[in-house]
Amino acid sequence: MADFKKSVVYQIYPKSFYDSNGDGVGDIRGVIQKLDYIKSLGVDYIWSTPFFVSPMNDNGYDVEDYRRINPLFGTMEDVEELIAQADKRGMGLMFDMVFNHTSTRHAWFKKALAGEPEYMDYYIFKDGSPDAPPTNWQSKFGGSAWEYVPALQKWYLHLYDVTQADLNWDNPRVREELKDVIRFWKDKGVKGFRFDVVNLISKPGVFEDDTVGDGRRFYTDGPHVHEYLKELVRDTGIQDMITVGEMSSTSLDNCIRYSNPAEKELSMCFSFHHLKVDYKNGNKWELMEPDLLKLKELLETWQVGMEQHEGWNAVFWCNHDQPRIVSRMGDEGKYWKESAKMLAASIHMLRGTPYIYQGEELGMTNAGFTDISEYRDVESTNYYQILLEEGKTPQEALTILGARSRDNGRTPMQWTDGEYAGFSENTPWIGLPENFKTINVEAEEQDPDSVLNYYRKLVALRKEYPVIQDGSIRFIYRDQREVFAYRRVTENQELLAVNNLTGEEVTLAEPLFCKGSRRLLGNYKPVPGQECIKTLRPYESVVLIREY
Ligand code: NOJ
Fold first, then answer.
1. What ranges do the domains of the chain cover?
2. I need a labelling partner for 20 at 20 to 30 A (CA). Which of 125, 201, 219, 407 fits?
3. Which fold has domain 107-165?
4. Which atom of ligand 1 is nearest the CA belonging to 141?
5. pLDDT tens-place string over residues 38-57
6. Which tens digit of pLDDT belongs to each residue from 128-161?
7. Per-residue pLDDT tens for 73-123?
8. Which residues on neighbouring strands pair with residue 314, listed in sequence order?
9. What is the pLDDT of residues 398-450, one digit of tens each?
10. In terms of C-beta density within 10 A (0-12 exposed, 13-18 middle, 19 or more buried), how is residue 471 classed?
């Protein structure tokens, strides 16, 4: 399989990708049927979010059995065929390992609830009276992070939903169980792994109230996290496979350690700071226009910091937890196409492994839901209530969800302009935006100038130009809010990526000399005879190369 530094990964959310059996829910056979499409993008790996047996309270991130397939998605034979068929096309499957917590329906938790001490030690149970949780920590989905079990007279920790109980990684037996899960899937031919919120696995020795926050500072990049990751990777022999850790509220220093090859932990990290630049006061549920200077500064800090210390970033705008980037930082209207392309190029020319989330390559937009009954996500429905309790009107709360809900990224993949966007023959489990009539695979396949074909070009360029894979990176026009631009350099190639992040024309602080450069890509027609770039049109993006 391809070296992860040269690779591009495509992310699938199977529930919304393609429904092969007409029950309104995407499935594994649906993914198999669309493998040629995925291959046509030029990607090397496919990361699929979980399809293991689960009550689906958090759409599969609440795993009941790590080794069985949820019948909603298919069978073990289907999964084996998926792996084999992807392999045949030169693509590797990356499976999603949700190891910070299990569903409370997992056999281990059931035994813990039955009072078996051995299994109680698989989780984090604490004594306490029913009216006083052990700490004031908050669940990431709202409310207390603790749930009381009257029969045991104890509380258990759940950093996410009440049905997602945190595992106790300090227990060596837990670590052995999880290693076995990895070996199981590795033996089936899986080529890599994505580890869900893996920087939260190591909890502190002492549990105390957080007087300034929600508790995250005590368990984020916790005391033994590096040690546990090293052990997991070493004992399962996955050091040469592609691995990515989802790092919640992490730090650059920790991500350098997670991804520096000398540490023998992971290939790369997802970090999210650049996707919080539109959170007012750091609060996801308070809207604000994106702070572009902050965005540039964060991307630069992480790009340069990782390069200087041999770390490696997963670069991305979208996933199943994020609103669609074109709605968020681009333009759904007049400059839809230009902005979708600019956002794509601005990420794909960076140093790191790019991830494309299903539908992003079409320029898919947010869902446009206007009624709470349209939402499915547990975080969204919880926060709707919380926002109302805080005094927001239903309309205000819906406006916030409209911009921030994870369901924005979970609407069905838009395949055609036909019924349900060609995703299913029956009503999908979640609604979809009206714009599928124009934004869909079928239409974009026929348009050489489509967003889809632009993504294909970006992926192909990465393969063709070593400077995109491993050139050093330095940022230019750093003080100019609207302009996100950088240089990538190797001994014999120099690449220049210049992007206008706004819908206004901008004049560059200094003209950019292109003499001697060749234009690799751009989302507008070049200005004939132009020797230097002085202005950028709305959302204009240009990629230039010079070879020595
Ligand atoms: C991160 C996953 O991406 C998200 O969808 C999930 O809700 C949480 N981790 C909890 O597993």
1. 9-101+172-458, 107-165, 472-547
2. 407
3. Oligo-1,6-glucosidase; domain 2 (3.90.400)
4. 7
5. 999 999 999 999 999 999 99
6. 899 999 999 999 999 999 999 999 999 999 999 9
7. 999 999 999 999 999 999 999 999 999 999 999 999 999 999 999 999 999
8. 353
9. 999 999 999 999 999 999 999 999 999 999 999 999 999 999 999 999 999 99
10. buried
pLDDT of 164 strictly over 60: yes
Annotated active-site residue in 64, 221, 246, 361: 246
- CATH 3.40.50.2300 matches 9-101+172-458: no
430-444 exposure pattern, b = at least 16 Cβ within 10 A, e = fewer: bbbbebbeebbbebb
pLDDT at 1 over 60: no
Nearest to 456 by CA among 546, 312, 344, 532: 344
Query: How many angstroms separate the alpha carbon of residue 196 from the centre of ligand 1?
Result: 7
Q: Output the CA 197–ligand 1 centroid distance in Å.
A: 7
State the pLDDT at residue 99. 99
Average pLDDT over every residue of 507-526:
92
Q: Which residue among the candidates 96, 196, 278, 377 is catalytic per the annotation?
A: 196
Residue-wise burial string across 267-306, b where 16 or more C-beta atoms lie within 10 A, e elsewhere: bbbbbbbbbbbbbeeeebbeeeebbbeebbbbbbebbbeb
Q: Give me ligand 1 centre to Cα 248, in Å.
A: 10
The atom of ligand 1 lying closest to the CA of 159 is 10
| Per-chain mean pLDDT for the chain | 97
Is the pLDDT at 530 greater than 90? The verdict is no
Which residues form the pocket of ligand 1, taking CB atoms under 6 Å from any ligand atom? 58, 61, 98, 160, 196-197, 246, 320-321
Continuous H helices in 247-335: 252-259, 292-308, 325-329
Minimal-distance CA residue to ligand 1 atom 10: 61
The protein residue whose alpha carbon is closest to atom 11 in ligand 1 is 61
511 CA to middle of ligand 1, Å? 44
**How far does the centroid of ligand 1 lie from the alpha carbon of residue 49, in Å?**
9
Residue 442 is a catalytic residue: no
Active site residue 235: no
Euclidean distance between the first and the last CA atom of the chain, given in angstroms as a whole number: 30
CATH 2.60.40.1180: does it fit domain 472-547?
yes
Which residue, judged by its Cα, is nearest atom 6 of ligand 1? Answer: 61
